[in-house]
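Hi there, hope your week has been kind to you so far. Thanks so much in advance, here it is.
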Amino acid sequence: MFLDRIPATPGGAVDPVAAERGKLLFASAGCVGCHNGDLFTNLTLQDVGKGGRFKVPSLLGVGARAPYMHDGSALTLADRFGPAGGDLHGQTAQLNPAQIADLITYLESL
């Protein structure tokens, strides 16, 4: 996928405490089932409720690669955790806004 060829750019300053909380949420929400390893991808095809099976992209540099989802339906990482993300894409519906912010902080640190 072409997104995997876009080089990661260094992110700005990230709150390390929020990023650590986000990392724990990343694991507990099931994100590591598909986004794992050194590249944060298992390179499989998955159905995340967006009209088909798509290759799991790497999350390295994800904070600099908006829009998100294969169809660009999530303009920001925050949008990814709204309706654009879908219920088949990790177990994040139960997360509160502060937890979503921590998860986004973690993703932006990758």
About this structure: The chain has three helices and two strands. The chain has a mean pLDDT of 86. Residues 15-109 form a domain with the Cytochrome Bc1 Complex; Chain D, domain 2 fold (CATH 1.10.760.10). The first helix runs from residue 16 to 28.
